[in-house]
Design goal:
elongated, Lyase, Ornithine Decarboxylase, Chain A, domain 1, TIM Barrel, 2 domains, eight-stranded mixed β-sheet, about 400 residues, binds pyridoxal-5'-phosphate, alpha/beta
Length: about 400
């Protein structure tokens, strides 16, 4: 038997059927007509946003990194809940505008922006987080060519990292941003070239469950933003302090307590350098806002044994929920939380089962030697924490199965 991550504690059942947003899992499948299905409960997202606002200093902006989940109905709702969207491609920019987020509240990060993407961004009046000197040169030239002043911020590769992060994106040699020791010179040069300089974007890491590590990184980020702004000699309109709030996906993980982060950030902002006195500050989050709101429902097609081991084969798999198979940014494969949706209140069977997807590859493993109640063909498997980096972060075309259904509740 191998342990699985903790099922979020608010999930309950009615007559054994898992409830999602107050609705039975099987009736949700009936509603869309088939499995596999991602269900997103907007009530959970709203509660998470409230937790953020309650814990964080007044006036701190909350940005949503839409790559975590760009499902259009969800984006439309998010546009009213958060203060800005962070996009990372021309495609995401179009989705953000479609969701009617105000262009001035959209920022565009990510390496390898093409000239046509820069042009769309400058034309729309969104902020480009510059990833390099070369990109700055191209953005200025594109602005010149279309006769529009570009809004440019400088993404900084910080000279520190967010300790204990699931994904490191700063500190050391990185393809993201420009190194801290060249950032002020880049900001100065775009200001001198006539661009509308928007400030700093400093993102040190992701998927972190240690509040003190996040506090430390935020303090270092604020100190770096002060130092860089002093070197430029101009107050940045916005300092994007990054994000990094993680989710408890795996055995032994505990939910991140964000209250001490808010208290420490409040103190740090109170003591900030004079040059940042009138600046705005933002935190950008993806998975923390939407991850727990999603459940992936997939149906058991076959149950078989091999050399004494039981395999439960479902009609979904890594082509929809790559992260649960352990092949999205993790080094060691561990089990995401899962349950049998239509036997949610049943005790586990004595022996473990391995839940595999329908793809003909050994890496399509959704639950390795997990404890589940006795199952039969047709039962529904629920994979939790499926609201972020699911449908849009998985190789949907691999092996030619249909795309998953998606449904927003609430
Ligand atoms: C991916 C990304 C995020 C979101 O990360 P999460 O771990 O989902 O919160 C935020 N900012 C940037 C720059 C990113 O690349």
């Amino acid at each position: 038997m191998k342990p699985m991550g903790p099922i979020p504690p608010w999930f309950t059942s009615e007559e054994g059927m898992l409830l999602i947003g107050g609705c039975g899992a099987a009736s949700l499948v009936d509603e869309v007509g088939d499995t596999p299905l991602f269900v997103y409960d907007m009530g959970i997202v709203e509660a998470q946003v409230r937790r953020f606002r309650d814990a964080m200093p007044d006036g701190l902006h909350l940005h949503y990194a839409i790559k975590a989940n760009p499902f259009a109905p969800l984006l439309t709702r998010m546009a009213h809940l958060v203060d800005g969207f962070d996009v990372a491609s021309g495609g995401e920019l179009a989705m953000a505008l479609e969701a009617e987020m105000a262009p001035a509240q959209i920022s565009f990060a990510g390496p390898g922006k093409r000239n046509d993407e820069l042009s769309e961004a400058i034309f729309a009046g969104i902020t480009i987080n510059l990833e390099s000197e070369g990109e700055a040169r191209r953005a200025l030239a594109v602005g010149e060519a279309i006769g529009k002043t570009p809004r440019l911020a400088v993404r900084v590769n910080p000279d520190f990292d967010l300790k204990g992060s699931g994904m490191r994106m700063g500190g050391g040699a990185r393809p993201f941003g420009v190194d801290a020791d060249r950032a002020a010179a880049l900001a100065r040069s775009v200001i001198d070239a006539g661009a509308d300089w928007q400030g700093w974007h400093i993102f040190a890491g992701s998927q972190n469950l240690d509040p003190m590590a996040i506090v430390e990184a935020q303090a270092a980020t604020l100190a770096l933003a002060t130092r860089l702004s002093d070197a430029v000699g101009k107050a940045p309109p916005l300092v994007n302090l990054g994000g990094g709030f993680g989710l408890p996906y795996f055995p032994g993980d505990e939910r991140l307590d964000i209250r001490p982060i808010g208290v420490a950030l409040d103190t740090a902002l109170d003591g900030r350098g004079d040059i940042l006195a009138d600046s705005h500050f933002a935190i950008e989050l993806g998975r923390w806002l939407v991850g727990e709101a999603g459940v992936y429902l997939t149906r058991i097609i076959d149950i078989k044994t091999s050399q004494g081991e039981t395999f439960v084969v479902v009609d979904g798999g890594l082509h929809h929920q790559l992260a649960a198979s352990g092949n999205f940014g993790t080094v060691v494969r561990r089990n995401y939380p899962m349950a049998v949706a239509n036997r949610f209140d049943h005790d586990p069977a004595p022996g473990p089962v391995t839940v595999v997807g329908c793809l003909c590859t050994p890496i399509d493993r959704l639950g390795d030697k997990v404890a589940l109640p006795p199952v039969v063909e047709g039962d529904l498997i629920a994979l939790f924490l499926a609201g972020a980096y699911g449908a849009s972060a998985s190789p949907v075309a691999f092996l030619g199965h249909p795309a998953p259904h998606e449904l927003l509740l609430g």
